[in-house]
Amino acid sequence: MTPKATILTADEVRRALTRIAHEIVERNKGAQNLALIGIHTRGIPLAERLAQKLSELEGVQVPTGRLDITLYRDDLSEVAHQPIIRETQVPFDLARRRVVLVDDVLYTGRTVRAALDALIDLGRPESIQLAVLVDRGHRELPIRADYVGKNLPTARSEVVKVKLAETDGVDVVELHDLETRR
Amino acid sequence: MTVASSTRPRHLLDFHGWTPERLTALLDNADTMAQVLDRPVKKVPALQGLTVCTAFFENSTRTRVSFELAARRMSADVVSFAAGASSLSKGESLRDTMEVLTAYKVDAYVVRHPAAGAAHLAARYSGKPVINAGDGRRAHPTQALLDAYTVRQEFGSLEGKTVAIIGDVRHSRVARSNAELLPKLGAKVVLCGPATLLPADLAALPGATLTTDPHEAVRGAHAVMALRLQQERMSAGYLASLQEYADHYQVNEPLMREAESGAIVLHPGPMNRDLEISSDVADGPRSRIVAQVENGQAVRMSVLYHLLVGRE
Q1: CB-CB neighbors (< 8 A) of B309 in chain A
Q2: Model pLDDT, residue A181
Q3: Coil, helix or strand for B65?
Q4: Which ipTM value was assigned to this complex?
Q5: Which chain A residues are within 8 Å of B45, Cβ to Cβ?
Q6: In chain A, whose CA is at the least distance from the CA of B35?
């Protein structure tokens, strides 16, 4: 389906992630004791790309993990179908780490709330920050991102579609009308 | 991603209506539940606000505790109900009991009953999902699921594996449920016991083969399950003597040497040590009996998730 607009091209995705990596380093005064945890699905490759950029910038291997928030969703009793549970893998101790949660789109904030609950059940990080590629607004909870690739005012009738090479074969962020989403 | 609701059974009474795909998804999700049980906080909020009733019309400690912990690990409230302390002892029917519990807004039932088919009856009157925790000789589906999960955990897959089940097959709901489940997941089931303790009607267990020879049963087996021998079978005339049974059918080290080299040993518990299983095998390196108990909780969490999460 044809998008109504292309929000970020592959180059712009790359530049946005480079900028976020610089901001993470600046805010945390380096990359020591950091960890990046991607939220399923597209948060995971974004976290891995940010870890690679942090390694290039600071020469530090920042550990990455993957978080599935299905069991923490606040709408499980209302969903029409049964959500599939995917893997949560955080193969390092969270204690005394500054964790950057990574997701592709920040919208209502409910996914991030679930991710915060899931993360805190895994351990007690020193702090948790949030990085997103696109913030499209319409928050239903008092949550904001620390690092944003692109602020994008949207209508609720629109859908922001992030495609990444690892999951979709191409890097692009598109805006669709809700009814034309595939 | 979601699982389409069209193929979704409402209850777990046996494996009728459960497709291999849905059973595999259930076992896959049990992996996630097992991870939850390994964490500092062994609890997720998936069933928050829901109430699960464990209605046990027959004694059982381990199955009831396993279900109750599973429900609590998923943040459900649990209400327990034991037949001895209920109005059933005053003559109330199962139907009336279920309707009373339904009026209390229970969201799911775990039912154990000495009569075959009782779980079906409970399902008819509950209006909510019912999980059969054992009904007479008929079925014990979550035990079979945790057995399947334990074998899968060992070998990565059930496809092409052979599971030998040795003992009182005739009276065993565990054997019956395994014989129904394992072939759906690609495994072969061999049921073995004295002729008096084998089911007369093989047609009722189409996925399994029967033998009275334990050596034949374990040859090529990847997992060997000893069934608990109920000692009253002797007085009922099914067995000449317990010693004779142990001499021929005990799962012990010499018998296990005839199985596949990496074969594991299972037992649904509780065990009669040195009767249906020797202590050295029960406690030995092939034994996965403790793992079965541990896996039971994860599998039951997954069953609750499958039946309670998402609308029809």
Answers
A1: 76-77, 79, 82-83
A2: 47
A3: helix
A4: 0.87
A5: 71-72, 117
A6: A88
